Amino acid sequence: MSSAPKLFRVIGGAQNYDWGKLGSTSAVARFAKLNDPENVFIEEEKPYAELWMGTHPSVPTVSAQDRTPLRDLVRAAPEEMLGQDIIKKFGSKEGIPFLFKVLSIRKVLSIQAHPDKALARQLHASDPKHYPDDNHKPEMAVAITDFEAFCGFKPLAQIDALLQKIPEFRELVGDDVVAEFHSGIVSSDVAGKKKLLQKVFSRVMNSPESKFEPLAARLVERTRSDPQLFGETLADLIQRLDAQFPNDIGLFCGCLLLNHCILKSGEAMFLEAKDPHAYISGDIMECMAASDNVIRAGFTPKFKDVEVLVDCLTYSFNPVEEQKLKPAPFPRGTGVAELKLYDPPIDEFSVLQTTFTSAGAEKFEALDGPSLLIVTEGKGKIKLQSSDEALDASTGNIFFVAPKTAIELVSESKDTFTSYRAFCEA
Ligand SMILES: NNC(=O)[C@@H](O)[C@H](O)[C@H](O)COP(=O)(O)O
Ligand SMILES: [Zn+2]
């Protein structure tokens, strides 16, 4: 197998989870079709949830030229494809340390969290069917369209207020724990408050269907009879999600316990391993450590691991604004484009958004690691700075860029030309 070039187009793989947008309304379907028009035929009734870009074995990304799996190209020439420093840092020649995705969301995803490395090793060893790898999965979402999600537990005073005024929530948790929580959250002992939050969450998550289903039905009724108890947004959210998953435990463990986070296009949020979350609607770029380990507990027909979830969460509780990740300038490009760097506090990935609103070029310094770039709007060219040969780069096109490779993006029109580049550096 000849060693791979420094810059080449690749074809990602789609996941058709039930919560994905349908047919051409899905950015995943549109991008997949535009990037591989001869082989992708969009079925309008089918959900297209995720477009995977990376070397995770569950959904192969392949080279556009001869459909060789990117994973095989990396394993055939790890020094060229990953770089010595990345191999040394992550101790692996097997694949790219991150997994990059487009998500297009019609229905709420499962209430979930992802394991840290120690828990991932344990779960993969004991239950490889549900936990396909032994890696942690911290992740970041960057909103392409307006996007909403559950992200982390609400501040405790907000949870307490809901417990005091919503009878169905109070009944599900139990007067004893409600009283203990109410009196305990005023203390300064953070560890003790996390324990109390875990008690509330455990009561909710361990309640039998025979108990939470009728309470959920009454809860939805109350959002119609007493909307003022919930506040405008929350009443609407409960009704909307009940329509998707009737009387689901997620109405309690999601709507009443987790922050409802709304991101405008270009805003981002970062989720540590073991942070509870669930994406609700919109199109996003998502980047994560290379893993597919999901611990689920609500709003899903998939396998729920309630005991593991209740036991593993961080039980941190921060206001919504603290869950957001602010983009930073990216001083390693020269030209006319606007550059925004989304750089979370973990080693596996950062994501660079490049936006042109006029004709012109942007030259980038070589990065000290592998990257994957996808065009999400408009059209232009991508090229090695060391060559005159330019490749078409239009919406849906995905490219692999090898380490130590200086590239240039060129926009040839005044229309918007936007791309996202996930990368990892030692
Ligand atoms: N927060 N987002 C993620 O973790 C994605 O990368 C996962 O692939 C999805 O959460 C999977 O969701 P379901 O298990 O189908 O509900
Ligand atoms: Zn997740």
From TrEMBL:
Enzyme class label: isomerase
Gene Ontology MF annotations: mannose-6-phosphate isomerase activity; zinc ion binding
A biological process from GO: cell wall mannoprotein biosynthetic process
Protein residues bound to Zn(2+): 112, 114, 139, 277
Pfam families: PMI_typeI_C, PMI_typeI_cat, PMI_typeI_hel
Ranges of residues in domain Phosphomannose isomerase type I helical insertion: 172-258
Domain of life according to the entry: Eukaryota
Chain ranges of the Phosphomannose isomerase type I catalytic domain: 7-156
Reaction catalysis annotation: D-mannose 6-phosphate = D-fructose 6-phosphate
Catalytic residue positions: 296
Enzyme Commission number(s) of this protein: 5.3.1.8
Keywords: Isomerase, Metal-binding, Zinc
Cofactor(s) essential for the protein: Zn(2+)
Transmembrane segments: none
Domain Phosphomannose isomerase type I C-terminal, residue spans: 341-384
Protein's job: Involved in the synthesis of the GDP-mannose and dolichol-phosphate-mannose required for a number of critical mannosyl transfer reactions.
Similarity remark: Belongs to the mannose-6-phosphate isomerase type 1 family.
PANTHER family per record: MANNOSE-6-PHOSPHATE ISOMERASE (PTHR10309:SF0)
UniProt-recorded name of the protein: Mannose-6-phosphate isomerase
Lineage: Eukaryota, Fungi, Dikarya, Ascomycota, Saccharomycotina
